[in-house]
From TrEMBL, chains A, B:
One of its GO terms (biological process) is terpenoid biosynthetic process. Keywords: Isoprene biosynthesis, Magnesium, Metal-binding, Transferase. InterPro entries: Isoprenoid_synthase_dom_sf, Polyprenyl_synt, Polyprenyl_synt_CS, Prenyl_diphosphate_synthase. Its cofactor is Mg(2+). GO terms for molecular function: metal ion binding; prenyltransferase activity. The keyword Magnesium applies. It comes from Novosphingobium arvoryzae. This is Farnesyl-diphosphate synthase. One of its GO terms (cellular component) is cytoplasm.
Amino acid sequence: MSASPLLKDAMARIAADVASMFDALLPVPTDPRARLMEAMRYAVLGGGKRLRPLLLTAVADMYRVDRAAALRAGIAIESIHVYSLVHDDLPCMDNDAMRHGKPTAHLAFDEATAVLAGDALHDFAFEVLADTATSSDPFTRAELILTLATASGSNGMAGGQMMDIVAETSQFDLPTITRLQQLKTGALLGASVEMGAILGKVPVEGRAHLRGYARDIGLAFQIADDLLDYEGDEAAAGKALRKDAAAGKQTFVSLLGPDRAREQARMLVEQAVAHLASHGQEADLLRDIARYIVERDH
Amino acid sequence: MSASPLLKDAMARIAADVASMFDALLPVPTDPRARLMEAMRYAVLGGGKRLRPLLLTAVADMYRVDRAAALRAGIAIESIHVYSLVHDDLPCMDNDAMRHGKPTAHLAFDEATAVLAGDALHDFAFEVLADTATSSDPFTRAELILTLATASGSNGMAGGQMMDIVAETSQFDLPTITRLQQLKTGALLGASVEMGAILGKVPVEGRAHLRGYARDIGLAFQIADDLLDYEGDEAAAGKALRKDAAAGKQTFVSLLGPDRAREQARMLVEQAVAHLASHGQEADLLRDIARYIVERDH
């Protein structure tokens, strides 16, 4: 663990804020829908690093965005992330039994409830963003929604997951694996940064350096994930590891070898930090997040 | 078949417009995501009455909304409807093999692809609504999105589907079955009417009669569905019937008997039409839709 004090504080704060906001926004009704909300709460309150809300609020803070508005947008992107994990863990997808050290949603509940809870969290993300409480400005709301829906759908995360399924029976080369990961993981990480900039009213032409930062940390994050999958500890990860190798699936580690992969991740982090050169200490948290991404142990 | 000439024309027109717009908006890319888009296209181009876009455009026409803007909103609500069918048909849900007379998506492709195609259509709906082409006015876009996300999520369709799963192991009474159906089917039919009114800039206080109309036809639609399930023809329906009875699930027909159920549906249609009394012939299509809903044979 190598998080800076600044990052440690920010991670603890976002974890507490995200948990209390999910708790407040997802009450359990006293009707037969209770099981659905219990499954949604189980999934969103189950832990996780809250990296996407952290990135979103870190960027928003640089532009002095109201914390409550940034947090609501962070809740939306975390809902999308969690719904995708719930569906990804299903028997017909990755068939995973553990997530954050607990049974996955379809085992804690049942498959049908897990499908529905994922679907309902998917809607919940857009409900939160479309609600007037997220931002008083409807232009901003519409831009946030378009950014998130695009990052999540067939031209983003879902497209990357489809490529990931195809990868099980195809031999992808490095450019194709890079594209797969940019969609599967990078799109949502990029949307986190972008949504912070949208809330900060940064004009599109002023976002290029933030997009560069997001692209680089997105790829570095995935290479670090592949390294953790290759040499990490299952207890620290809270989930099964070494599944890609068992499935014969190409990863950055299988294509580059662990040493070159590690070097590549470090280079991407330096590049990500370099994109922030025009910023002073207000970007220190983003710099620390970039370094943490390749040094984390889970 | 008892559609009026007015309704027949409108149904043929919306079917053609919806199909050509889906075709244009969902091109198949020449990369490994192709299979995802093929599954999305298979599901959305597979037929269906297009009742939700029909309702939306019928209301929008009453208020002289631009046809292209109304159609895009109709595409969004149809995407939500179709995604829910794809997930509903999954083995862990209703385990259905036929839909619109064709193999369901998870049989035509595979389960993982069907889950992802549903998820991607879910996003696609919000992408379409958030896009500036849907409406040049961001207030309207945000209101459309909030209406659709609410109707689709845990307080709407997904909540109703959860109740439907619980119904398999519980004995629900008539008020609970009514609530279940208002969520499962009624919420999205209601959103269709509401979104037409939003595009038509009808103020909230001027929508009460349209909401009453939508509530009544939503319930009538479900009773008619239960009657078709009870006494209909599988070939005309293009799907398996009499599954509720086999599962011992309560329906309007099991609770009321077929005669009282039919009478109730007819009464609801009269009530729906009465809500439109303040309108002249511009509401004739809505009146014809209400009557068709209980007289259709599939």
